[in-house]
Amino acid sequence: MAVFERSPRSGNISAGTGTGTGTGTLPRARWLLLGAVAGATAGSVLAGATSGLASYFARQVLTPVREHVQDLEILAVVGTWPEQEIILPATLDTTAPGVYSVYFDGGRGVARVGEVTSYSPREGTVQRTVEQVYTGDLAAATRGWWGGAAYPDPAAVGLANEEVQIEVDGGTAPAWLIRAESEASTWAIMVHGRGASRAEGVRAVRAIRELGLTSLLISYRNDGEAPSAPDRRYGLGMTEWRDVEAAIRFALANGAQDVVLVGWSMGGAISLQAADQSLYRSRIRALVLDAPVIDWTDVLAHQARLNRIPDAVGQFSQWLISNKAGRLLTGLAAPLDLKMMNWVARADELRVPTLIVHSENDDFVPYGPSAALAEKNPLVTFERFSGAGHTREWNVDPERWERVVASFLSRVLGRS
């Protein structure tokens, strides 16, 4: 899933009070002194707890996902291949229409599941078709996680590809190169989201290829395939864009004249920074952003609310992320400029034709900033979806997603 994993829910932090008994009567001045000491102690405890929770939340946002939580119970797998179905607990994810992946056995196994065949609200279960088991023994699986990357690699959609290595800071980053049928002067560089992999972009490749574009599905720092950053922390787009710049450099060195950046979730934030800061920004013809992070302040506040973190603690975590004094607690090599990543405030500085596809039901990255950016900048086209979770617009309605993307890119690139 190209989304944030929820942090453990934290209860309210409160300073306890105690009562005691003593002999005699203390002078009023001494009571005031004791009260002041107790208040200062309680205040220190509360401040320390607030600081600890804020730094914990900040680290959760900034620390790369190494292991996915296997929070999906696999109740049963019935039938035999190729007529196999899977029974799962009924949730907003598992009951949504479309095609998805179930990862199991710690991610070593992956299966593609299709439409719902039966749904029992009374029992709280849903049954879906199993379209393909790519690796692992699904019948033996008991737990896993749900994902929107419907295909594990380009071969799963019948597309020939080459594994290439892109020179980045600290070494080389692997990428899939999927060439157009004929020589292409425009390449599409696919930028996955936080906690996801380059497989996220496979969903988009067929529609992009039909436009005559070559696709490059990249990895970037801290995603588990590319070299890690020295501080092993996400830059939320402020550092990762350099790996996109390296991918653009690779494309230009191998026949491309210009590029389109296609980004999901944090990959959208990365793409926006590349379009703003890269030496090759003049070669970026368009941006296609799916459920992008347009304003990190808004997303961090939303994530804090999801995790029941008090507003003051959430705001302090933002301060830790964006100030030098917070580096010791966050682990960042340098603070991140959250204002520079607020594209609603910087709307007039975005000069690249941009398509934003975003669901109004996105529960991790609210769509409000996407809509606001489109209202403020005429270069931005906003396509609102409904009924889709975070980065699941294609899954819910692939025909519409591909039609919208094709229409936008055809117009921008001057394709018939």
UniProtKB/TrEMBL annotation:
<keyword id="KW-0472">Membrane</keyword>
<keyword id="KW-0812">Transmembrane</keyword>
<dbReference type="InterPro" id="IPR000073">
    <property type="entry name" value="AB_hydrolase_1"/>
</dbReference>
<dbReference type="InterPro" id="IPR029058">
    <property type="entry name" value="AB_hydrolase_fold"/>
</dbReference>
<feature type="transmembrane region" description="Helical">
    <location>
        <begin position="31"/>
        <end position="58"/>
    </location>
</feature>
<protein>
    <submittedName>
        <fullName>Alpha/beta hydrolase</fullName>
    </submittedName>
</protein>
<keyword id="KW-1133">Transmembrane helix</keyword>
<dbReference type="Pfam" id="PF12697">
    <property type="entry name" value="Abhydrolase_6"/>
</dbReference>
<dbReference type="InterPro" id="IPR052920">
    <property type="entry name" value="DNA-binding_regulatory"/>
</dbReference>
<feature type="region of interest" description="Disordered">
    <location>
        <begin position="1"/>
        <end position="22"/>
    </location>
</feature>
<dbReference type="GO" id="GO:0016787">
    <property type="term" value="F:hydrolase activity"/>
</dbReference>
<keyword id="KW-0378">Hydrolase</keyword>
<feature type="domain" description="AB hydrolase-1">
    <location>
        <begin position="189"/>
        <end position="400"/>
    </location>
</feature>
